[in-house]
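>> received
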Amino acid sequence: MGEKRSGPYFCGIDAAMDVVGGKWKALILWELENHGVRRFGELRRGLPGVSEKMLIQQLRELEEDGIVDREVFREVPPRVEYRLTALGTALNAALEPLEPLGAWGRDRIDRTGAARVHFPA
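>> returned
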């Protein structure tokens, strides 16, 4: 993994990729957009293949960038919830033009039988 940057950037795409770059961040955003507030375990189950360490790291970076809000409830056992901030919601809206890429990927899964996880219809 590369070091996290904070500029200077040569274009807007460069700055945006600094926030959402990598495999798991876009999937975390998708999970929170589609399911709303999620506890850590729910996020982990919703993202098969992500390690606990990687998920923690990616969530921390998204929190530092103001994309995800982390709320800790002082309970026994402790409860932590994650949700998109207003900035995170705006980022997801900006990613909507990538929906055709997702459709192409779903078509590829159907053609090749390459699904890693089977989701209910």
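>> The chain has a mean pLDDT of 84.
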